[in-house]
Design goal:
Layout lengths: L1 H22 L4 H8 L7 E6 L8 E2 L5 E2 L1 H13 L2 E6 L2 H5 L2 H4 L5 E2 L7 H4 L3 E2 L4 E10 L7 H4 L4 E4 L3 H8 L4 E4 L2 H9 L5 E5 L11 E13 L2 E2 L4 H16 L2 H10 L7
Parallel strand pairs: 1-4, 1-5, 8-9, 8-10
Antiparallel strand pairs: 2-3, 5-12, 6-12, 7-10, 7-11
The protein binds arginine.
The site of arginine (ARG) has 14 residues, from loops.
């Protein structure tokens, strides 16, 4: 029994040595890619929660597109892998659950960087500045914190908008996504919608108005599982590259409709 065990141990050592050997080879790029673990090898799988135009929304072909998807596709391209989009409830994404259950490799969902979330998964460098906004029926007279008192305010579950409403001592009514929030406002179930200002624009054509911006100074980041350092580094490297080579500006201009203002 002993010799067998020893043989097994030796074989294991040999294997380790082999692995060590191959990872100290010359091809640094291949090594970096080799360290990267993806839930579905050959594919970067991204979790996102549409509708959240212009960051993630369904186009006329039923495909999920938007600024978050464009940026994540740049990461996939740099890694030389495909991109697959997985639609996920925002709360499971925000809690880090979709990363720990290996539903995806990366979160790209207009996700604000917060200390609480950063305990559960790692954030990339920030890629977009955000504030909260208020959407109401045109002429409602609701346009600040004071006039929101006692009103029913639709929030998206587990978002920073929900936290903002609670912190102001106001009354949030929870909805699973932005689409359901907007429907509640259209049908008069609520008096107002609070969510990120950048996603409220598409609705002002239908008798609704953006009545206020609440400056919260948020920043969006992409999320990866804690410990997946190789992926996090790759994501940040892509963000640096697209900032430098003009790709980020092009994506921003296409999706947001204006050129980004200088930092
Ligand atoms: N920025 C806000 C947050 O992180 C809202 C994000 C909602 N994103 C989405 N795709 N529905 O809480």
């Amino acid at each position: 029994m002993r010799p067998t065990l020893r043989a097994a141990a030796l074989a294991a050592t040999a294997l380790l040595a082999l692995t060590a050997c191959s990872s100290s080879g010359d091809d640094a790029a291949a090594d970096a890619a080799g360290e990267l673990t993806l839930v579905n090898p050959g594919t970067l799988t991204v979790c996102t929660n549409p509708p959240f135009e212009p960051f993630e929304f369904e186009d006329e072909n039923g495909e999920i597109v938007g600024l978050d998807i464009d940026i994540t596709r740049e990461v996939a391209d740099d890694l030389g892998v495909d991109l697959e989009v997985v639609v996920t409830p925002f709360d499971t994404l925000e809690s880090g659950a979709s990363l720990t259950t290996d539903a995806c490799d990366i979160l790209a969902s207009g996700l604000t960087i917060t200390d609480e979330r950063a305990e559960k998964f790692d954030f990339s460098e920030p890629y977009f500045d955000a504030d909260q906004g208020l959407l109401v029926a045109e002429g409602s007279g609701i346009d600040d914190v004071e006039s929101l008192a006692g009103k029913k305010i639709a929030v998206q579950m587990a978002t920073t908008g929900e936290t903002w409403v609670e912190d102001e001592g106001l009354t949030p009514v929870q909805y699973e996504d932005l689409g359901l929030q907007i429907n509640a406002l259209r049908t008069g179930q609520v008096d107002a919608v609070v969510n990120d200002i950048a996603v409220l624009g598409p609705f002002i054509t239908e008798g609704l108005e953006v009545a206020a911006t609440f400056p919260t100074g948020e920043q969006y980041g992409l999320g990866v599982k804690k410990g997946n350092t190789a992926l996090l580094e790759a994501v940040d490297a892509t963000l640096d590259r697209i900032r430098e080579d003009g790709t980020y500006d092009a994506i921003y201009t296409e999706r947001i409709g204006t050129a980004p203002t200088a930092d």
